[in-house]
Amino acid sequence: MRKILFGFLLFLVVLVAAAALAPFLFKDKLRALADKQIAQRVRAKVQYNPADIDVTLLSTFPDLGLDIKNLRVIGVDSFSRDTLAYLPRLRVGLDLMSVIKGQQIDIKSVNLDQPDIAVKVLKSGRANWDIMISDSAAAAKGQDTSAVNLAIQGWKIDNGRLRYDDRSIPFSMDARGINHTGKGDFAKNIFDLTSNTKIAKLTANYAGVDYLTDKQVDADIAMAMDLTKSLYTFKENQVKLNDFPFSFAGAIGLPNATDITYDITFKALQTDFKNILSLVPGVFNEQFKDVQAAGQVAFNGYYKGVQNKLRMPGYGVNLTVTNARFKYPQLPREAKNINVAMVVDNPSGFTNNVKVNVSKFHLDLGNDPVDGSVAIDGLEPMKVDGRVKANVNLAEALKVYPVAGINMRGQFFVDATAKGTYSKTQMPVVNAAIKMSNGYVKSNQFPAPIEDINLSGTVVNRTGQVNDTYVNLPQFHMVLEGEPLDGRLTAHNINSPIFDANVKGTVDLTKMTKIFPLEGMTVTGRVSGDIAAAGNMADVEAGRYQNVKASGAVKASNITYKSKDLPQGVKISSAAGTFNNNQINIQSLNGTAGSSDFAANGTVSNYLGYLFTPGQPLRGTMNVTSHNFNVNEFMVDPVSEKPTAGAVKAAPTKADGVVPIPKFFDLVLNSKVDNVTYDNLKLQNATGTVTVKNEVASLKNLTFNTLGATFGTTGSYNTQDLAHPKFDLGLNIKNLDFQNAFKAFNTVKALVPLASAVQGVFGTNFSVSGEMGQDMLPKLSTLSGKGLFDIVKASVLQSPVLSQISNLTTLPELKNLQVLNKVVNAQIVNGNLVVQPFDLTVGDVKMTLGGTNSLQGILSYVAAINAPTGKLGSTVSNKLTQLTGVQNIQGTDRVTLGLNIGGNITSPVVKLTSGSLKDQGKAIVTNVVKTKLTSTLLDLANKNRAKNDSTQKATAITQQNAQEQLNLEVQKRKLEAQEKAKQAIGKGLNSLFGGRKTTPAATPATSAPADTTKKATP
Fold first, then answer.
1. What is the pLDDT of residue 201?
2. CB under 8 Å, gap of 24 or more: what pairs does 816-820 form?
3. Range 763-791 average pLDDT
4. What is the dihedral sign for C-alpha 931, 932, 937, 938?
5. In this structure, are residues 379 and 352 in contact, taking their beta carbons and an 8 Å threshold?
6. Of 13, 303, 497, 764, which has the highest C-beta tally within 10 A?
7. What is the enclosing helix (H) or strand (E) of 373?
């Protein structure tokens, strides 16, 4: 007994010791293995803090627990700005003995706490989740593919979120509150996998329409896993979507590296109508459990076929609702006689081959019937045969189905049929009538109702030709708080409409948008007008505005607009204008944009083309004035094209982003602004003309004052490529202080570092071009230009360069220079400043200087100094004797010294390179500078050639990918056509021999529903 007790205590001691030592023994080893596997097997950026890794044994015994916090996986290339997964806490259970042995580590369990996973698929089909390098690819590189083994027996997700956005379909899904557990022994080749998944809110969207909104999911699934055959078969399972339960049967297989096979059927597990009613948007709420419902439902379908680059599985759905009804207990009326027969069938899987047949749809909203049917064959082109007819008292309808926050009444009638083909060139034969009598709409969000709504109209097409569609709305009338709005519209010839319309009245945008909220934007204010227009869009597109009758007057007051794209907001306190066929005459316009005020008047033309013809510009000439304008508030991110953080702030003081130029504007703006804030500069008295066209702003005679100087500029600013905005400007600056320029402009700091040691003023007449950065400051490495610097007065004091020159030449007068009225010719090449040789005279010393300095501050200047020989010290005289070969150097009158100036502005290196008895310094310096300029231009040409080669290579790759995508699409179209032809032949043979083809989702008879809407036909 004592031995047993002793052995047990020894075991506990070893266990506690192992638990205590585990972090020290295995942490570095596991981290090194993880880093190696990530580097070799993952095409993504994986970010984590080594301090957030922990290893434990006690809480996970007998497995070793690896705990990683705040792990983030970020995509590369097209997804470099996207986070694929953020894992606040990842816990991995590792087989302890496999870690100790170290040959192959077995992963036994995985737990994720609050993971946030965002999956994206681009239109090209490229997916951000495709980040793992296959075993075969890794082995081909000689990498170890056996270091980690998945021997998982269990896994868990707590409160996760999964977002899926597939733009190639287009389909998106957002699942919140995911709690998932699973069990299965992946160490075996054949085993059973069981899982339970609960989702608190599931939203699914296809082509911009939400088909599921915040639905609950509870799924228990059991599958037979055969890893040898890559075959996964559904066993017992049940999925519950809200209160609608259904199950799967069949299998999913991976027969090869490119294909996925599906052979799955599904069906409803219960037949009560109330269960499927819970899927209707908005129904699943607190009152749903008390809803009285009856009727039968039949629901089944299939998903069968192969999925690869060319194909998708076929699918079908049958839904039948028979004699159903529902009633909310708090409402007096019920929806009854609900009968639906719907079949969706697409055996080929190609989206364009889908067939939808709703042969029967009927319900009575109280005593008001609604009937409809529709058969759709294909999508492009789409064959349609459908009808809807309803005559509904809106007040009675709200007694059947609750619409939160809305009160309505009035009689609404619709009777519409459509039969034929819908495509780019065709449309079905249509006969539709709609009428609203004595309508009333009131929202709880705003007390004022829209009253006295009366409208009637028709849409008719008798031939199936698009241009033979006639729209007629002979009258429209409504009243909002005593203010009537009336209008009418007739139009036909859809491709180039012929129209006749009139609108008269006042619209209170504040009230209207509270009744009908606008997502993502806020609009307030009042607009009144009397507008009439009649004509042909062909004349608008051709600019024959004289053939269009358009006239009217519009007034606006206290208009405000704010959105995600314009967070600073715009307010128009007052505006008035008149218009005719050709132009709009803006008599006055006063308002603010963010913290900036503005006033304008002028004329705008081609407004009809701009409004109705995509790609046509808005032309005009405007006179714009402002007291204070903050440019920083209009910065956008050059990649996302969204406002930056600086633009959102109330009073930003720093540029943050790029100012975009509108695409379809062709405007001349005569501007006068008293104060402009741009980056951290304050500009005064800015006047000039700005022409905006094709995303380019051309500046003409734009002048302003800042830093005590006068600036003038002419040139352009181009945002056609917003990620790389370009400028080309001519600058004329007068009386700018060197110190102010050095402190305010990064360009001066980088290109003219000597300015930090200069006191005085200068002017310049300079032409410069290049690219703007995201901070709306020039990218120095892209600059090119040339011009003159007019140094009015300059004192160079305490300069390390001059100090070294003075010490080397023993000429003390060169330590401090005074320069008056000197013109210096300079050039910027690829961001390098090239200073052409210029002369200075200091007492009886003549000096010529020229050269270059780079963005990195590297100096490469040459100087020639012609000085009296007697002023030179003995050391310099001896050096000159060696350089010139003249023994009696002191016997000469003057001598020329050649200097090289290298290093940088704070640590220059000055060397004596030549000596001459002749005054040929300027020629020496000129030749050296010419050589340096030629070398710089050659380097620029080589860089541009390399850049062009890189661009051409990237373009070639893009074209190749596009061609591959095109070839894939051609093959898909070919297979799609073949499948459609097979269906047509099969249908014909069945008709010929009197048989009927049976598919997994058989199409029910398409008998027309009885017309039950003959009540009170208007």
1. 92
2. 817/842, 818/794, 818/842, 819/760, 819/791, 819/793, 819/794, 819/795, 820/791, 820/792, 820/793, 820/794
3. 83
4. positive
5. yes
6. 303
7. strand 368-377
